[in-house]
Design a protein that fits this description.
Helix content is 32%, strand content 16%. The protein is α/β, with parallel strands linked by helices.
Length: 180
């Protein structure tokens, strides 16, 4: 296996051929009898949430900088645990977009990130019930009222660099849960 710039570049005979053509010094690691894997993938994380006890804590008591610092700390922890790729579908203050870009630029250590911006939802509230306002941004969500607002927000998120658009299509309607 040939690894270049932290990524698997070639395997088997192709790796052997490329190694012979490279003029620079190569570090060889004998992994005979061991398992070599490229890394773990976590397909649903929220780096900026930390160990919040509730949506209320995230919505009302988290500042932008604290959310970004928590996300950076959590990204480094995941990488150290062997997770090399993640999907973070929504984040507080859209901070994961900047974190992804900082990791790609080599500013901070972390896994490869595919990420979203704000989750799109109606005022019914996704998983947060009555905490969700009738419009605007709160925590990790943006409340939208109609298809035109949805289209405009999707376009805005693509423009700011979202890889993923998360949509809450239903919600927990207070006192209606038992009817479902």
């Amino acid at each position: 296996m040939l690894v270049e710039d932290g990524k698997i570049a070639a395997l088997g005979a192709d790796a052997s051929e490329r190694i012979h053509r490279i003029a620079t010094k190569i570090e060889r690691i004998d992994a005979t009898g061991m398992t070599v894997m490229p890394g773990l993938i976590d397909a649903h994380v929220h780096l900026s949430f930390d160990d919040a006890e509730s949506n209320a804590e995230i919505f009302h008591y988290r500042r932008n900088a604290l959310s970004a610092l928590v996300a950076a700390y959590n990204a480094k922890k995941l990488l150290r645990a062997g997770v090399t790729s993640i999907l973070d579908p929504d984040s507080v203050y859209e901070s994961t977009i900047d974190l992804r870009d900082a990791i790609e630029a080599g500013v901070i250590e972390g896994p490869r990130i595919a990420c979203g911006a704000y989750a799109l939802m109606t005022s019914v509230g996704g998983t947060a019930g009555r905490l969700i306002p009738d419009h605007g941004v709160i925590g990790w969500g943006k409340v939208l009222q109609d298809k035109d607002e949805i289209v405009a927000e999707v376009r805005r998120q693509i423009k700011v660099g979202a890889d993923w658009i998360k949509v809450h299509v239903t919600g927990l309607i207070p006192r209606q849960k038992h009817k479902g």
